Amino acid sequence: MITVTAFKTVPDFARGQVRDLRVRWALEEVGLPYQTKLLSPGDQDKPEYRALQPFGQVPILQDGDVTLFESGAIVLHIGAQSERLLPTDIRARDRATQWMIAALNSVEPALVNFFLADVVFADQEWAKLRRASARDLAERRLAGLSNALGDKPYLDGDRFTVGDLMMATVLRIPGESEMVVSDKRLGPYLERCTARPAFKRALDAQMGDFRAAA
Ligand SMILES: N[C@@H](CCC(=O)N[C@@H](CS)C(=O)NCC(=O)O)C(=O)O
Question: Of 36, 93, 125, 213, which one has the fewest beta carbons inside 10 Å?
Answer without folding.
Answer: 125
